[in-house]
Amino acid sequence: MATTVDDERLDAMFAALADRTRRDIVNRLSRGEATVTELAAPYAMSLQAVSQHIQVLERCGLVSRGRHRQSRPCRLEPAALEAAVSWIEASRRAWTERMDRLEGHLQRLQEENPT
Amino acid sequence: MATTVDDERLDAMFAALADRTRRDIVNRLSRGEATVTELAAPYAMSLQAVSQHIQVLERCGLVSRGRHRQSRPCRLEPAALEAAVSWIEASRRAWTERMDRLEGHLQRLQEENPT
After folding, report:
1. Residue A47 CA neighbour count, 13 Å, CB half
2. Which chain B residue shows the shortest CA-CA distance from A44?
3. Which chain A residue is nearest to residue B4, measuring alpha carbons?
4. Can you tell me the ipTM of this complex?
5. Are the beta carbons of B22 and B53 closer than 8 angstroms?
6. Which pLDDT value is given to residue B28?
7. For residue A68, what pLDDT is reported?
8. With an 8 Å Cβ cutoff, is A75 touching chain B?
9. Is the CB of B58 inside 8 Å of chain A's CB atoms?
10. Dihedral of the CA atoms B33, B35, B40, B42 (nearest 10)?
11. What is d(CA A5, CA A19) in angstroms, rounded to the nearest whole number?
12. What share of chain A is helix, strand, coil (3-state, %, to 5)?
């Protein structure tokens, strides 16, 4: 099976979210733009380490950087989360539909064979 | 900041979903139980490699194995996806609320300073 662009995007998105610090940064940015220095403040890690986390979030499209101000503030791109949510919801929907069908089938069996 | 059980669960869940084969397996299981042999059939990889993917899905709680039949069929545990969806939705909600507040603020500014 060929790997599609969607597969690559989902790989990158879920891998980006599989880290507590990166999820923290996403949470912080959901409340407003912030510079790398501001984002790094709560952590006992180097500015460079925080920058690397932000680059991972940029590569999967979750975060973008301002181009015009020297501080290049980071902002959340929440539309990018849509792909992840859609994938999860599709799996849950398929499962729920199957459960509904099974339930309907059991009900018909009981109606056809009342005890 | 201390790492919580929830953080560990989300790390494991998102890391499990960051692989195309594992997402395929979740999709397959959303349509019904399957044995490891059945799950491995579409892939050009060893049964052992597929088993390892399934173990990753078991460790994060997404998949459970039957105990009573020798084939130990795999089943999806869709409730486990709830944690991942909740986390994503919380981030999107915070962002949307912030946008709504900004919009309200702009509207008030325009009303106070009509052109």
Report:
1. 4
2. B1
3. A20
4. 0.82
5. yes
6. 94
7. 74
8. no
9. no
10. -50
11. 23
12. 65, 5, 25
Helix (H, G, I), strand (E, B) or coil at B34: strand
> Residue A24 corresponds to which tokens in the numbers above?
């923290």
pTM over 0.90: no
Counted across chains A and B, CB pairs separated by less than 8 A come out at 99
| Tens-digit pLDDT profile for residues B50-68 | 999 999 999 999 999 988 7
* DSSP-derived secondary structure for B78-96: GGGHHHHHHHHHHHHHHHH
Contact B14 A15 (CB under 8 A): yes
Cβ distance of A30 and B95 shorter than 8 Å: yes
What mean pLDDT comes out for the span B1-27?
88
- A25 contact partners, CB below 8 Å, separation of at least 6: A39, A50, A53, A54, A57, A63, A74
What pLDDT was estimated at residue B102? 82
**How many helices and strands (H and E) does chain A possess?**
5, 2
Q: Chain B contact for A6, CB < 8 A? A: no
Q: How confident is the model at residue B1 (pLDDT cuts 50, 70, 90)?
A: low
If contacts are CB pairs under 8 Å, which of residues 15-34 in chain B contact chain A? 15, 17-20, 23-24, 26-27, 30-32
Retrieve residue A108's tokens: 């018909």
Contact criterion met (CB < 8 Å) for B78 and A87: no
Helix and strand counts by DSSP (H, E) for chain B = 5, 2
Question: How is residue A8 written in tokens?
Answer: 């690559």
Weakly modelled stretches of chain A, pLDDT under 50: none
Asked if the Cβ–Cβ distance from A85 to B87 is below 8 Å, we say no
